[in-house]
Each structure stands twice: as structure tokens, then as C-alpha cells.
Amino acid sequence: MLSIGSLSKRTGVKVPTIRYYEQMGLLKAAERSEGNQRRYERSDLERLAFIRHARDLGLDIPAIRELIRLSEHSQQPCADADRIAAEHLAAVREKIARLRKLEQELDRIVSHCDGGHSIEECYVIRALSDHGLCEGEH
Amino acid sequence: MLSIGSLSKRTGVKVPTIRYYEQMGLLKAAERSEGNQRRYERSDLERLAFIRHARDLGLDIPAIRELIRLSEHSQQPCADADRIAAEHLAAVREKIARLRKLEQELDRIVSHCDGGHSIEECYVIRALSDHGLCEGEH
DNA sequence: CTTGAAGCTCTAGTGACTGTAGGAATTATC
DNA sequence: GATAATTCCTACAGTCACTAGAGCTTCAAG
Ligand SMILES: [Zn+2]
Ligand SMILES: [Zn+2]
Ligand SMILES: [Zn+2]
Ligand SMILES: [Zn+2]
User: How far does the centroid of ligand 1 lie from the alpha carbon of residue B94, in Å?
Assistant: First the structure.
């Protein structure tokens, strides 16, 4: 049986974050010691690692909650799980696309000025004042 | 003189957002009508467009506050403004890099499973349970 | 048996808004 | 000029995934 601190050290998840995951229903409410402190077993450690990995891959908490629910029905088909992952991948790709446009526009703006002008002439300020100088939408 | 609603329609910035920008010190406190309603002039419209465009390009509020401050000293050199833009570009590039790694990993995971398995065998669930199956860090 | 670390609950703060409640002012219609 | 519809006001709660702190209790080592 692990204390919340040892669980934290083993997984790299901070103590308040573990409590937060419990509150959000990702971790089941832990057993308690006589003095009301949380005690964890191996299965909690595995579940926490699952949560942490999913978060590191950018999945949000409702998605993780659903994945955990699905993972408890080992004989069901995995279509829902695959769909969650695929939708997340699509969302990541959209974010990348939006950021790429930003990058292009910012790169163009930044390379038009080298800091050696007055504010009045500065292309950065002028470009921010007038979207008409932009090449695309954002 | 424009009401906050007309200013909102002309700029596409929602009314509560305009009030929020005022609170954050991006827009100066507007003049008021006899009945205490905000009244705007052309210069406010231009400043709001500046703010909105900067936000659309991803700059945060402290950066925009600083850019507005700089833009009021038209004879000063523009090095600070250019630096803010360049730093933001660098931050955008970092975000893209992080998301690209995520995309790669997610793409690999998703393409390993086509929804036609049981949860027990599902590669999505297995990959989330075990970062050892990943190619990179995140 | 003392002491210091680690645990507990509860609350508030992050960033950039968005939405709501309850009331006052303005504008439009008759 | 009365009334109705719209717009405006302030102040506060909620979003997301944590993080930090206050004030108190329990645990483990010496
Ligand atoms: Zn410049
Ligand atoms: Zn633009
Ligand atoms: Zn699958
Ligand atoms: Zn991984």
C-alpha cells in the first residue's frame, strides 16, 4: 500500500494533481488509513500512469474518463476508443494548421523589420494595425 | 460617437469582450453618456482593431499592452516591438514542434488499430497504458 | 515521546474570455 | 406622450487542468 506521496514519486504526478484526478472521477476514491490518509495499490498506480500518459498525449479529462470506462469492458469492440483517438488526432492536426498560418504571417511580419526603425515606421506596428497587410486570414 | 453595441458590430468583438479589454487596460476608459453608457470615437475603433488583430495573431494581453505603450512613442526606436513579435514567433514555433511530435505519435497509434478488435486487444488502449510502446517523449 | 515531514480539506488563482442576473437607459412604435 | 423592445450597466460565476496556500492532523524516525 502506497501513500499519496510515494505514488506521486513513482509516477511523477504531483500530489495535488492526484487528488484532483480523484475529484474528477478518473481515479476511484482511494482507501483510507485509520487516520484518513489515502492508501493506494498497484492497480491505482497503473491507472494513474494511464491517465498521465493520456494527458501527455493531449487528451482531455472527459475523453480519458470515457477511455477508462471503455477499458473496463474488455470484451466489447474497441471502435469507440479508436474514434476518440482519431478525433483527437484530427483536433491536433487542426491546431497545427492554424499555428502554421500564424507562423507564416508572423515570420513575414518579423522579417520586414529589423529593429532599426522608429515606431512610426515599424512594420510590426503597422502590420498589427492593419490586417489588410496580411496575406491570409486567421 | 458609437455605443458599445455599434463598436462591437463594426469590429466583430463581442460587447463583454470590449468591456474586458477596458478592464485589462488595453482600451482607455471610454467617455460616458448622461445615462452612464460608454461612447466611443474613431480612435477607439482603431485601437480595438489593433488589439483584435494582435489577439488573432496569438499575442497575449501583457504583450499587447506593451505594444500599445510603445506605439504611443512614435519617435522611439522599434527594437522592443520587434523583439516582442520575434519572441512570439519563437513561442509559436515551439508549440508547433510539440504538436508535431504528438501528431506523429497519435498517428502511429491510431493507424495500428481499425476499431475491429476487442478492447482487450485494442492498440489504442494498450499504447495509452504503456509509454514504452511510444517512439518518442512528450 | 518528540519533532518534522507529509497528509488532510477547503479556497482561490491562472488566461481570455463568456454567460447570467437584476436593473437602468435608450430607441422604436403607436 | 405612453409603452414596448432593445440595449446598456455592474458584478459575479463558469470555463480547463491544474497549482498554491492556509490551517489543521497524522505518520515515521530517532
Ligand atoms: Zn520595427
Ligand atoms: Zn492579419
Ligand atoms: Zn482499437
Ligand atoms: Zn508515450
Answer: 23
Shared domain for A67 and A37, answered yes or no, is yes
In the three-class reduction of DSSP (H, G, I as helix; E, B as strand; rest coil), residue A125 is classed as: helix
Choosing from B57, B76, B95, the residue where a domain stops is: B76
Nearest ligand to the C-alpha of residue B116?
3
Q: Tally the C-alpha atoms within 13 A of residue A107's C-alpha that lie toward its C-beta.
A: 9
Q: Tell me, what's the pLDDT at A115?
A: 86
**pLDDT beyond 90 at B22:** yes
pLDDT digits (tens, 9 = 90+) for B54-91: 999 999 999 999 999 999 999 999 999 999 999 999 99
Of chain B, the percentage scoring pLDDT greater than 70 comes to 100
Residue B115: pLDDT band (50, 70, 90) is confident
Beta carbons of B114 and A82 less than 8 Å apart: yes
Domain count, chain B: 2
- Confirm whether B138 is domain-assigned: no
Q: Which residue range(s) make up the domain with A56?
A: 4-76
The candidate with the shortest Cα–Cα distance to B50, out of B40, B37, B41, B59, is: B59
| Burial tier of B93 (Cβ tally within 10 Å: 0-12, 13-18, 19+) | middle
Specify if A138 maps to a domain.
Answer: no
A96, A106, A131: residue with CB nearest B88:
A106
